[in-house]
Amino acid sequence: MKNEKTTIAIAGVIIGILAAGLVYFGNPVNMGFCIACFLRDTSGALGLHSAAAVQYIRPEIIGLVLGACILSLINREFKPRGGSAPVTRFILGIFVMIGCLMFLGCPFRMILRLAGGDLNALLGLVGFVLGILTGVFFLKRGYTLKRSYKMQHTEGALFPIVEIVLLVLLTAAPSFIRFSEEGAGPGALHAAVGISLAAGLIVGALAQKTRLCMVGGIRDVVLFGEWKLLLGFAAILASAFGANLILGAVTGTSYFNLGFAGQAVAHTDGLWNALGMALAGLGCVLLGGCPLRQLVLAGEGNTDSAVTVFGLMVGAAVAHNFGLASSAEGPTANGKIAVVIGIAAAAVIAFVNSSRKGEGK
């Protein structure tokens, strides 16, 4: 157990440093990694939405999936499974993304925003924990989406193959995808493809090895008093914070801005920051993992997680096509309505799939 915790802590330190480094090499501030933002950008690049400011196939996502896939094959942990309520998972994925885009970031970016001094992320963290606690309540009542089933290796390999196709499109056939124009917004800010892909491969492998999942970490603390997964995110926070301070001192450019106002790709509406992440936290508990964990599982051949990722991508398209996503000016009226609907829908899904006796597990 001690060795496992040490491994998780070291992985967290490496991931935090890589995230800060990606900002130095060109990614948006406090967005070295953001699963929600990067899936949103990829959706835009594929034409699923037309928001010109957020269109770019993010190599970090490709690397995450392939890094997890490669290590799982090496460790003989590539075990394709699926068939557990795929439509429900798809719908939950849509709502999780709507919650993340209300906050403007996934749980991973929430930690990186804190490491960059963005205090708005504290309100997001409060809501996130409350959403997870709500999900744990339903877990204790016997919530389950029923069992998954063993599938052929070819089925499990399809999602990693899709990521390889996206890499080919980005590098060899860019005329077929959309790019944010220089200066247009977050989609135009990115590190070089090779750097981003390499960082994604490393993070994907480390996340696969350690089972990193912030949702799972908080859930495990509540249910079992087990802190090891949260240790990884504490290490990410500490190392990214330290790297931001060092980069600022070396370059003369501020990578740490303490406060609420003037934060990059963020807004100051505390209530909706909290409610957006509450929806994300609840939805992720019902799905069995955060967006980072879903990508890693998809890389391991889990088709239920692949369906969830597709739901996240469609959720990004829905958010931008219908004016649900927040901006630096704050949340939209449509976005607020969608978050409330999402919380209600997630609660209904949790209720109808629960049994006090845990029937059907």
From TrEMBL:
Keywords per UniProt: Membrane, Transmembrane, Transmembrane helix
Signal peptide: none
InterPro entries found in the cross-reference section: Seleno_YedE, Sulf_transp_TsuA/YedE
Name this protein carries in UniProt: YedE-related selenium metabolism membrane protein
Membrane-spanning intervals of the chain: 7-25, 56-75, 87-110, 122-139, 159-177, 189-208, 229-250, 270-292, 304-325, 337-355
Native species: Candidatus Blautia faecigallinarum
